[in-house]
Automatic annotation (TrEMBL):
<keyword id="KW-0378">Hydrolase</keyword>
<dbReference type="GO" id="GO:0000724">
    <property type="term" value="P:double-strand break repair via homologous recombination"/>
</dbReference>
<dbReference type="GO" id="GO:0005524">
    <property type="term" value="F:ATP binding"/>
</dbReference>
<keyword id="KW-0413">Isomerase</keyword>
<keyword id="KW-0539">Nucleus</keyword>
<feature type="domain" description="Helicase C-terminal">
    <location>
        <begin position="216"/>
        <end position="378"/>
    </location>
</feature>
<dbReference type="GO" id="GO:0005694">
    <property type="term" value="C:chromosome"/>
</dbReference>
<comment type="similarity">
    <text>Belongs to the helicase family. RecQ subfamily.</text>
</comment>
<feature type="domain" description="Helicase ATP-binding">
    <location>
        <begin position="22"/>
        <end position="189"/>
    </location>
</feature>
<comment type="similarity">
    <text>Belongs to the disease resistance NB-LRR family.</text>
</comment>
<dbReference type="GO" id="GO:0016887">
    <property type="term" value="F:ATP hydrolysis activity"/>
</dbReference>
<keyword id="KW-0067">ATP-binding</keyword>
<dbReference type="GO" id="GO:0005737">
    <property type="term" value="C:cytoplasm"/>
</dbReference>
<dbReference type="GO" id="GO:0009378">
    <property type="term" value="F:four-way junction helicase activity"/>
</dbReference>
<dbReference type="GO" id="GO:0005634">
    <property type="term" value="C:nucleus"/>
</dbReference>
<dbReference type="GO" id="GO:0043138">
    <property type="term" value="F:3'-5' DNA helicase activity"/>
</dbReference>
<keyword id="KW-0238">DNA-binding</keyword>
């Protein structure tokens, strides 16, 4: 195995997990590989065909990605090719069937379209594995669900004794379960590498939309993008992409643009120029995604709260692939949090809608947490952290002061509880601030003992407090259709039960100026 690695790839040793995965595949076992971006997943399916002299089938979602990989493999003397619905070259088909490729890439649509006779001939020639790259696309819980992936289970019945390998860089427990089930993996060998990208520094800031902030952002970008490394700015809308692009242009900073409304050709040109360092800044929507294997991206800036932590982890993870310290910055405005229905338009079923809402709520909690961001991310992906603070995120490096908010927390939680625990955040805050809106009068909430007791503090302050109570598990968000409701969770109930109007046990929280904007 080591000599194959050296001969074809020029590497002297395997990275963590690679060897054990290859060994399991060689023994004919199904595998689930969950490893961070840049950890070397591809090698796990590229080595077995070179050892067994049988073809490896690789299912991959994007043609551009396959083209890149095929080209790189060919340069290494590996016989690689790809099949897509557009690819009708008879020769390629014949060679594929005849087992004359080491690695045969195909799109999921193509894989499901191929005739049974194709598979049986190829089986006769020898198949050493079937790998499904970006396997999270199979799950409705994933951030990138693709219907075509759902049909891959058909292949299991055709390729009975071929080891199946699902690979992904992002998978929560739910998604992992879905991959195993949908690909019908049989007692798979599961590898879960750490998600910790130690060379990345995480930070989050809130901002107010307007030219002042745009100018600030442009100054920041001009400071960080140069020959030493590139920057990607991810926006949530095409409009934002165009606006930032225009601002950069005005400041004479050379940049590229990438979004779904551009023609394929302009998009590809833009992608290529970025990869070739013809400019150092790319302003894009998340359509600029899979297959950006550029080692020297130094900054990934998100302009607007991302739709999920899965996508945030993957997008921000595109920086620092070369291991050099790099920066993941996120800017959000409070109004971003009201965008759930924008993201829900992608949903087809109630379950998908709920999944989207929950993922989005987690991204919001990441924005507003005042504890270690790395720990927050890692725990979200199911890792247990041995550290309390990482020292390489804004919350760990900024000095901040906690203060006792027991009375205010008591008021807010008791008010939410008294209102029945099935409203969003606005209503209980309005009750505390003494509003006499029709909704409040109709529900008799003006008669509650808490009505008006919080009028000294602005609504934003109460909301910031609520976000802290959410990220510390006192309050719990739940989702009904498109609505997010807030109730007091078990930890909050425990606190409330130990309170009375004259005494509240200490509860220390941090409300940073950021949160109060
Ligand atoms: P992933 O698919 O997990 O994001 P890749 O397979 O693209 O990661 O690998 C990331 C980089 O690491 C590639 O440039 C690859 O050549 C390199 N790499 C993979 N395995 C090894 C190894 N054993 N030794 C040195 N470099 C490796
Ligand atoms: Zn930290």
């Amino acid at each position: 195995m080591e000599s194959t690695l050296k001969e074809y790839f020029g590497f002297t040793k395997f990275r963590p997990y690679q060897k054990e995965i290859v060994e399991n595949i060689l023994q004919g076992k199904d595998c689930l590989v969950v490893m961070a971006t840049g950890s070397g997943k591809s090698l796990c399916y590229q080595v077995p065909p070179l050892i067994t002299k049988k073809t490896a089938i690789v299912i991959s979602p994007l043609i551009s990605l396959m083209q890149d990989q095929v080209m790189a493999l060919k340069q290494r003397g590996i016989r690689a090719e790809y099949l897509s619905s557009a690819q009708t070259d008879r020769n390629v088909h014949n060679n594929a069937e005849g087992g004359r490729y080491d690695i045969l890439y195909m799109t999921p649509e193509k894989a499901c379209m191929l005739a049974a006779s194709f598979w049986s001939r190829l089986l006769d020639s020898g198949i050493c594995l079937l790998a499904v790259d970006e396997a999270h696309c199979i799950s409705e819980w994933g951030h990138n669900f693709r219907v075509e992936y759902k049909q891959l289970d058909k292949l299991r019945d055709v390729l009975l004794s071929v080891p199946f390998v699902g690979l992904t860089a992002t998978a929560t427990e739910k998604v992992r379960g879905d991959i195993v089930k949908s690909l019908k993996l049989q007692v798979p060998h599961v590898t879960i590498g750490s998600f910790d990208r130690q060379n990345l520094f995480y930070s989050v800031k809130s901002f107010d939309r307007g030219t002042a902030f745009l100018n600030e952002l442009v100054t920041e970008i001009s400071a960080c993008a140069d020959k030493a490394g590139s920057t990607i700015i991810y926006c949530t809308t095409v409009k934002d992409v165009e606006q930032i692009f225009a601002s950069l242009k005005e400041a004479r900073i050379e940049a590229g643009m990438y979004h779904g409304q551009m023609s394929n050709k302009t998009r590809e040109d833009s992608h290529r120029s970025f990869i070739r360092d013809e400019f150092y800044v790319m302003v894009a929507t998340i359509a600029f995604g899979m297959g950006i294997d550029k080692p020297n991206i130094r900054h990934v800036i998100h302009y607007g709260c991302p739709k999920s932590l899965e996508s945030y982890y993957q997008e921000s993870g595109r920086c620092g692939r070369d291991g050099i310290p790099s920066f993941c910055k996120l800017y959000y405005t409070r109004s971003d949090f009201a965008k759930a229905d924008f993201y829900c338009s992608e949903a087809h079923t109630a379950a998908q809608r709920k999944a989207i809402m929950e993922s989005f709520a987690a991204a919001q909690r990441y924005c507003t947490t005042t504890t270690c961001r790395r720990k927050f991310l890692l725990e979200y992906f199911g890792e247990t952290c041995s550290f309390g603070s990482c020292g390489t995120c804004d919350n760990c490096t900024n000095s901040k002061t906690e203060s006792d908010m027991s009375r205010e927390a008591f008021l807010l939680m008791a008010c939410i509880q008294s209102c029945g625990g099935n409203w969003g955040l606005n209503l209980p805050v309005d009750v505390l601030r003494g509003s006499r809106s029709k909704k409040i009068l109709d529900a008799n909430f003006d008669k509650l003992p808490f009505h008006g007791l919080g009028k000294d503090m602005p609504a934003n302050w109460w909301k910031a407090l609520a976000y802290q109570l959410i990220s510390n598990d006192y309050l719990v968000e739940t989702f009904k259709d498109l609505y997010k409701t807030l109730r007091v969770g078990p930890k909050g109930m425990q606190f409330l039960n130990s309170c009375n109007p004259d005494y509240q046990p200490p509860l220390y929280l941090t409300l940073t100026p950021e949160l109060l904007r």
